[in-house]
């Protein structure tokens, strides 16, 4: 059994920061459960381009307001608490944040915690044994 709190992972290798977001990675590949779970905050007034070519991601908004832009179709979807989006087709997308947007994200395959977006918004496929 794993029991973990956000406060205990802050400022550890589980707490990853970039220019437009902060991701507290609660469950990682090394736990060996087949997915990773993240508490991520994307900052107000920012726009983050992403493309998970190697992962499927489910994103559930729990705080904030923003817009999800599907860069492949041009569709724009409002994001607010209670909204979920699933990137099951590896869609290139952007999240434009009106306020800080806090999400709970699940990745499959799980991330190791060392990934950062490359110039195309892609996480590399890194593996790690449990």
TrEMBL record:
Q: Which GO terms describe its biological process?
A: ectoine biosynthetic process
The top EC class is lyase
Reaction(s) catalysed by this chain's protein: (2S)-4-acetamido-2-aminobutanoate = L-ectoine + H2O
EC number assigned by the record: 4.2.1.108
Q: Example GO molecular function term?
A: ectoine synthase activity
Keyword ATP-binding attached = no
Record keywords, A-Z: Lyase
The name this protein goes by in its record: L-ectoine synthase
Q: Which gene encodes it?
A: ectC
């Amino acid at each position: 059994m794993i029991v973990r709190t956000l406060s205990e992972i802050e400022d550890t290798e589980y707490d990853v920061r970039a220019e437009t977001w902060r991701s507290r990675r609660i469950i990682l590949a090394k736990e060996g459960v087949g997915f990773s779970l993240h508490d991520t905050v994307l900052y107000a007034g920012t726009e983050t381009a992403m493309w998970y070519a190697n992962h499927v991601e489910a994103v559930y908004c729990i705080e904030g307001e923003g817009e999800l832009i599907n860069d492949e179709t041009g569709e724009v979807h409002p994001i607010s608490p209670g909204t979920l989006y699933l990137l099951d087709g590896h869609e290139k997308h952007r999240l434009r944040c009106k306020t800080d947007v806090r999400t709970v994200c699940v990745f499959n395959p799980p991330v190791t915690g060392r990934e950062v977006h490359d110039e195309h918004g892609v996480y590399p496929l890194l593996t790690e044994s449990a």
